[in-house]
Design goal:
The protein has 114 residues and is α+β, with helices and mostly antiparallel strands. It is 39% helix and 17% strand. The chain is elongated and about 65 Å long. It starts with 13 loop residues before the first helix and ends in a 14-residue tail after the last strand.
């Protein structure tokens, strides 16, 4: 048994492994989007609060899910004003994209259970 695989048994700090994992990156992004969603609640029209949610922020594009076409159209009419206000709290945002997700629950703004 002299030809065993030679492995380097390096002791790893579990915190370092977790911090560099894709799961940690996913959790961090989710927390960032959740925080941004809460901050936008004061900017977006109050009657629409449960009809939209922040879906993604990437390369300056803020993607926002809406539950129906009327909400999307309402937000599109206000897009320039909303973008200016959003840039005051999140300067990285350069463009807004509103898209329909009919699976959103209008009472909570979350996805409906399947």
């Amino acid at each position: 048994m002299k030809n065993k695989d030679k492995r380097s048994y390096k002791t790893l700090n579990i915190n370092q492994v977790i911090e560099k994992s894709s799961f940690a990156n996913l959790m961090e992004k989710g927390l960032q989007l959740s925080t941004l969603n809460e901050r936008l609640a004061s900017i977006f029209p109050a009657p629409l609060r449960h009809f939209y949610r922040v879906a993604d922020l990437q390369n300056g594009l803020l993607k926002i899910e809406v539950s129906n076409a009327m909400v999307r159209q309402n937000l599109l009419f206000q897009q320039a004003q909303l973008l200016a206000k959003i840039q005051q709290i999140e300067p990285a945002v350069t463009k807004l994209n509103f898209y329909l997700n009919p699976n959103m629950d209008n009472r909570t703004g979350k996805l409906k259970s399947q």
